[in-house]
Queue: 3 jobs
Job 1
Amino acid sequence: QPSSLSGLPAGVGEALEAEGVAELYPPQQAAVEAGVVDGDSLVAAVPTASGKTLIAELAMLSAIERGGKALYIVPLRALASEKKTEFERWEDHGITVGVSTGNYDSDGEWLATRDIIVATSEKVDSLIRNGAPWIDDLTCVVSDEVHLVDDSHRGPTLEVTLAKLRKVNPGLQTVALSATVGNADVIADWLDAELVESDWRPIDLRTGVHFGNAIDFDDGTKREVPVDRGEDQTARLVADALDTEEDGQGGSSLVFVNSRRNAESSARRLADVTASRLTDAERDDLRELAEEIRGVSDTDTSEDLADAVERGSAFHHAGLASDHRSLVEDAFRDRLIKCISATPTLAAGVNTPARRVIVRDWRRYDGEFGGMKPLDVLEVHQMCGRAGRPGLDPYGEAVLLANDADTKDELFERYVWAEAEPVRSKLAAEPALRTHVLATVASGFASTRNGLLSFLDNTLYATQTDDEGRLAAVTDTVLDYLAVNGFVDRDRDGGTESLTATGIGHTVSRLYLDPMSAAEMIDGLRTVARNAAGAGTEGETGEFVRTGDDDGDEPGFGTYTRPGNDESPAEETEGTDEEGTEASAVTPLGLYHLVSRTPDMYELYLKSGDRETYTELCYERETEFLGDVPSEYEDVRFEDWLASLKTARLLEDWANEVDEDRITERYGVGPGDIRGKVDTAEWLLRAAETLARDVEGVDGDTVVAVREARKRIEYGVREELLDLAGVRNVGRKRARRLFEAGVETRADLREADKGVVLGALRGRERTAERILEHAGRENPSMDGVRADKSASAAAT
Ligand code: ADP
């Protein structure tokens, strides 16, 4: 019984029992026996929903009871707040919880007072780089979904972060939670931890394949689910689950598909199945929920989602706004939404179990692979693991779909009977090491090449590899890169080579930039500086430096002159005086392009026709780009450049107040993607502003231009709305309507006629009151105020 556990804060055991934890699950029991409440390190490799979180809680709470402090590392930002809310129930027992999200460049000092801190691995990495003082006080660290060390983008960060935490604090208890993988023992070996490995699940899971008229399950049972000619296999299986009542309730389904578009169309199709099986009460609740969904944003995605939800079906993918996502997840858990069609992102972490999981697509398009590629076993197992809600369903069913007998056999071999792949470290790759080597040197974890290599010896990579020279070789390549770009100074003194981060190297590490992003931005900013220098001389002499062709570059077909290069100011060909001094003017598009072509901004792909569109745009706006435009003949580089231009153009649209809907349409992205781009651009422009101060020759005007471009991205507005949009609750659309009605600034909001404000805000009294309050108006009450009709007319 939990209450008989010793070493926990008073009342915790009883509270667990009150929650329905009558006894520990077998893997939890094994964890306790392995010493998890006594401060021992542990790797728990057990299936989804088998109570891993409680293992972590036991570790953290007992560590705190001993006077320590705990850190819980999550793989996704969305999980950070979910976990924080979960842990906050311990506040009644005197435990404080803090979550660290937001900017990557602060040291989160306030977290020093918290007992439990929740953060992503990237955030922890940046906190270490920024010297967060409380890092030294940690006594327990939990790494959730540790098998993601296998991920080539994010895995290395987790690996290095754990190595750093363990180096700072040699006695640190490390608890790693993992899905069942092929080599959990290697992870345990790496972390010097005990291993608890188990296939135990709190609720029976049957996995099978549907083909023809039945599902064949791995336990030898068979379930007849006949599919009529022309009938949709997935729809039939969703209907079958809903029509099978257990405890008076039909079962909900989670359908995994391979793309966002498929998730949306599947949700639409399956709404026909769910709609006919709703009670009147459910219909009413769903209508209300649909309204709430429409209220989040007025985009097509929002509308499509609401339409499906109204009928009891939903889609879920990374393109959704986070409010949409949580509304859908909550309603699914409340059994109001009967079916979710999701991309695999939902399988990782988010707690949304269903009675039946249907893996409709087991292949997905892979750009690097150049075609359809089968999903990893681990991924499919995690999807299947979402089947069965403890306490709600008597069992869980996971079903893969086959159209022919051969595929059925293949699916059994490949997924049902197969063990998950072993995880493999992805650390020994240049992009990963570039950033981590710089940070390791900058934060003082290593000051010589040998020190660096011995630090890297504490990683999973070193535990796994039999090619010892590889890591050293990549490290040396990376050190060369960092030295050439002025981020690290190397000094050879006899046999030892000492390493120090330069001033700018420190800045780059703290800003959490990929050094290659920093180099690109610094290069772009230098162009501005060179330009400014050029423009300055021109301004004084009133003459143009003769430029253009004398650098040997014939500005002819397929070759771009470097715009703003001091040898060929683009304005020169125009030959007018006024434009001479404009040579240094930096435009938002130029800056957006600069940050969009860094490796820290993930790419928008060029679709058919895009190449022409953006090539044309590239010519049109040629003078605005900071740095060389590659020649059209450099195929790959040029394509990359255009893809960045597409992103830059999206950002420019956003800052020009183009409707979200219009943007999603024009670029083929979801509203969540716009948010992602905007957030990343905001962060990178903030970093660019800091770097601009360090680059010689960049003047104050440029720094201001960068700041303004960033603010316009932050609020999604033109310059004249920056003041208004900065008022809480205003936002880009309302700011525009207020402006059109003559309320142009924050100060205006304090003085303006209330009827005009209310009219511009389309008669929404509560909103108007809140906005006036945030603008600092004495008496924001709208009691008895009548909306000015002309103001709302002006606003449309
Ligand atoms: P995992 O993290 O392994 O995916 P969770 O920790 O989310 O799984 O656990 C799934 C569910 O099981 C949670 O709702 C949790 O409250 C419940 N649970 C965990 N341990 C026990 C237990 N010993 N007895 C009863 N319920 C439990």
Job 2
Amino acid sequence: MRMIFLGPPGAGKGTQAVKLAAKYGIAHISTGDMLREHVKSETDLGKQAKSYMDSGRLVPDELIIEMVKKRLREDDAKRGFILDGFPRTVKQAEALDELLESEGIKLDAVVFLDVDEETLVRRLSGRRICLNCNAIYNVYNADYPEDGHCRNCGAKLIQRDDDRPEVVRQRLDVYRKDTAPLLAYYKGRGNLVTVDASSDSGEVLRAIEELCGGKN
Ligand code: AP5
Ligand code: ZN
């Protein structure tokens, strides 16, 4: 199974990608997680990316495309992958097309996770993450750990710097301007499926599996 998860910040791309990737034994490739790792380890890329991320702007295409190209060549990605947060611009989508074509790989589906803006803002304000294992939680959800520590690894959960309200507004603007045009791009190629991602997480997962069934 080879899929792209497309959608605004807070739509649930990461939440669903983790579950599906584990279920099908394929790679979960989140450019946001990869960049946060680079920032944490203070690599050259991390140092270049940090100011863009903190202010809710996109990291330059060239840096992202290079990072994803390398990642897609790793062994686990050969069994299949879910791209979460990439591509994010038409330029990134074109670079991905080129790469997949040169490797003779076809995408099974581009899944658009559709959620209204009010729900997105609420989800982002309540999100807490584990920087150690990338697990995602939400203080508004019933399964939020009472002690504020990650259930997988015990690390303390934190709020992402870019989940502050003023940065969230900027990220939503960037999404509308730079990323939403990808919906038309993939619709034109005939492999876009839209999922109502405003319902609870289990239902969203079922809807994705139903729409993409038989492609694993
Ligand atoms: P990135 O980390 O990719 O952020 P994003 O796209 O803004 O997406 P999010 O991680 O905010 O949302 P999500 O859809 O994954 O939602 P989640 O599952 O966490 O990027 C961060 C930054 O890195 C960018 O701003 C940019 O600077 C840079 N970057 C990354 N990729 C780039 C690229 N390709 N090009 C250039 N720059 C790039 O869910 C959100 C919350 O809701 C969680 O708390 C979750 O528990 C909860 N939730 C999820 N689903 C449900 C549900 N069904 N019901 C109730 N709660 C739910
Ligand atoms: Zn953890």
Job 3
Amino acid sequence: YHTLRFILGDQLNAAHSWFDQCDPGILYVIAELHPEATYVKHHVQKLCAFFLAMETFANELEAAGHQVCYLTLDDTKGHSLESLILAIAVRENIQTIDLQRPDEHRVLMQYKHLFEHAEQTVTLFETEHFLLPFDDIPQYFKPQHSVRMENFYRKMRQRFNILMNTDKEPEGGKWNYDSDNRNKLKAQDLNNIPAPLCFQYEVQYLLERLARHNITTIGKADNILLWPTSQQDALDLLAYFCEHLLPNFGRFQDAMTSKTPHSWSLYHSRLSFALNAKLISPMQVIDSAIARYQENDAIDIAQIEGFVRQILGWREYVRGMYWINMPDYQEQNALDAHRDLPSYFWHGDTKMHCLADAIGQSLDYAYAHHIQRLMVTGNFCLLTDIEPSQVDEWYLGIYVDALEWVELPNTRGMSQFADGGWIASKPYAASGSYIQKMSDYCTSCHYKVKDKVGEQACPLNSLYWRFMVKHRERLAKNPRIGMIYGNWDKQSDAQKHAVLQRAEWCVDNIEQL
Ligand code: FAD
């Protein structure tokens, strides 16, 4: 071989120009690595999904005529990413190493090491996945500065001419239909929720491999994996989404329920793993969804715009915010939060129904939808001052789609406000009334959502006010929040005292909630 091309587990892009031609002198290497399996404690289904997708990709490349070396944990024991690449290059007497740009800063640092120390010629190629070219990120983002997603998203709509009419105006006349995306699921809606499309891969051999290598994991180990692990699976999942879920995607995007067998998935696409592993490209997803919208009258603009905003907007935006602010981002702790994450995040055993449900399904499926991540688990950590690095670690481990470039800005930035507002214009802090508005969790909860004080009062109610009072100096200036303090100030001193006392009890006894 003259060239070694290394493919990371999240670089499974069959449409990459590397694969346009077969060259018997190029050796493609895909490897399960111990450090990758252990840099955080991953959900067992996440590891199985990545390993199976990698193995499938290697088989498909080989079938297409490429030279491929797939290495399992058994083959790579004792190796780091760099040492493995170098060892193969030396063994095969290869002079050229090609890499694709990693999405995670952590991996880029390891590649930098290779650039500096390898005797071979090392070249970095783009992944050809994201819509915004990496080198354009500084045109849209400034380090340590707030950049609003909405402004970025409008520029992306214009740049890529997506959902724009011929007069260069947004289709439908509005940029954003967010206000139409806030329906609660009513009793009559619950029976109509489609079952999620789940795949059925036998992964007992992977579970055994993980056990053999003492890789500790979290979550429910199931020998049947239901996540997509090939390009074809991703396309099937996308087609299923466009057909059955897109017609109601925007409408129920923020809704939560525990009352149906499909509560865990609702109208969400569950495409994040396929996208992040690059089994499918964001443009493919957007194009298919828009094509379906154009041919199906049952899909209105609020549904398609809501979906496109997530992929063209949020997904590209958090990547920009990540890269412009790393490595500083991972050190931010603007609200000075230092409490330990309570143990129920690892088993779901809490009396708070919303939290138990969101954590429980995360452990069962390695998945929760956005509002559960942001407004249930995220909100709870925000209100109880959990150390952002512990929050990051939990999110990075538990979700099948969790890779640092997308996890960190969402967790530390959007959800924990630890960046002091680079991403969010105000903290996503909420009391029990938000949960009650968007879900049916409160009706069967141990706690009373209407109460602020007393042993059975929903902890979120007093914790919310504790948070607002604690950060008053920072938040009162914010025109989007200032008036909330009026409600607080109207209360008698005795009422305020009782609420804050209940909140202190909750944080002091956080393990008992
Ligand atoms: P859908 O609801 O069907 O949305 C479609 C797609 O839009 C998603 O697949 C995703 O690619 C994209 N998207 C939507 N929201 C966001 C967002 N805020 N940021 C980036 N992309 C978005 N997403 C991850 O992919 N990996 C993570 O590790 C991750 N961690 C998160 C942590 C927190 C605290 C929060 C609040 C959000 C996080 N998200 C993360 C974003 C979002 O919650 C998930 O992308 C989404 O829930 C995945 O499910 P889905 O594919 O069914 O999404």
